[in-house]
Every structure is written in structure tokens, then in C-alpha cells.
Amino acid sequence: MAEIIEISRIALHDQVVARLRTMLVEGRIAPGAKLNERTLSEQLRVSRTPLREAIKLLAAEGLVDLLPNRGAIAVKLTETDVLNTFEVLAELEGMSGELAAKRISDEKLSEFRALHYEMLACFERQDLSGYYRLNAMIHTLINEAAGNPVLVSTYKSINARVQSLRFRTNQNAAKWKRAIKEHDVMLEAMTARDSAGMRQILVQHLDNKRDSVLALMRAGDIYPLANLGA
User: Which GO molecular function annotation, any one, does this entry have (predicted)?
Assistant: First the structure.
């Protein structure tokens, strides 16, 4: 029996978007799969109108492709797509880190530190979903602390397409532990307001993510079998 997911009527649109985004990022809707409106409507207990609005917004974010005569398809990237996307993303994150180290406020630095330790707690209890949520918040905070709205919007649109791939690399214990160590270095560099150090660790972090994604793709392990949207 399909899982029934409760959604209140408060901010219904935002909740549908958030839930669908999570399903796509965590692979509960498999990359390349068609988003079945009837099944998703039943699971989320909403009509098709807010569901379709949510799908359109997620298509604008880059998580869904809207294809003629096929409908909405969860994005599935090729190796070339991954290489091209991470090449740009590494530079954007490096630039974000460099600028953020120079411009971050004391308040945002405290928030960064708090999120970091919350993320570590998720790692300790092996809560991958909670870890990834906090991880994404940290990377967003760094990007926004750079204080450049063009950089923010560019980063957001490009990062959306690889969120699900970034999530799945942490399912490998060794790679997850390495990512934690890299985040420790980020906190140290940001606290010291070391702009060169922030650029260096973020570029390295993204290069490692790229290599992890490609290794999983080549091993045939990157795309899950579960498909709750079909």
C-alpha cells in the first residue's frame, strides 16, 4: 500500500513543493521516472491543481524536466552533465566561500557554527536525511553570506540539478566521514575569516563530490530502484 503523507491546509502550496523536493532529492522518486499525478495526489492527499503548480516550480528549479507528450520527468543527468555542472559549481562555491569569509557577520558566523554542530549530531546518529537538510542549509548560508545576489541566484539554479546526486554520495560511510572532515575545515577557515582557505576547501569539497558521483554512476549504484512517483 502506498504511504499516505499528511499535509495540512496551512501553506499547502509550500508544503507540497517541499515534500516533492525531498522525494526527488532523496531518490524516492527515481531519476528518469515520470511523476504520476494520480499516485502523488493520493500520497499527499491534495488535488492535482496544487500538485501541478508544485511540479512547475520544481521544473523551474531544475529538479524536473517537462517534456512534450511525456509529462514531468525527474531529472537524470549523464556523466557529461555531471562533469559540466560540477565544474561550474566548484567555482561558484569557491567564490562564495572566499567572499563570505570577508563579509560574513558575527551573527551569521554563529548561525554557521550552530548548524555545523547540529549536522555533526545527525552524522553521529546516522540520520542521513537530517544531515543533508542541515548540510544544504550550511552551503546556502555560505553562498548568501557572500553578499552577491547574482552569485546567489546562479548558484541556486545550478545546484538544484545535482542535489539528489550530492545526497546519495553520503550513503557511502567513508565518503560521508570525509565530507564531515571537510566541513570541519570550512568552520575553521570561516571562523579565522581565511578567504583563501575557504575557497580552497570548498573547491576541494566539490571536486570530491564530483568524483564520488562519477564513481557511483560508473558502478551503476547512483540511481535507486525505488520509484514512488510512477
Answer: DNA-binding transcription factor activity
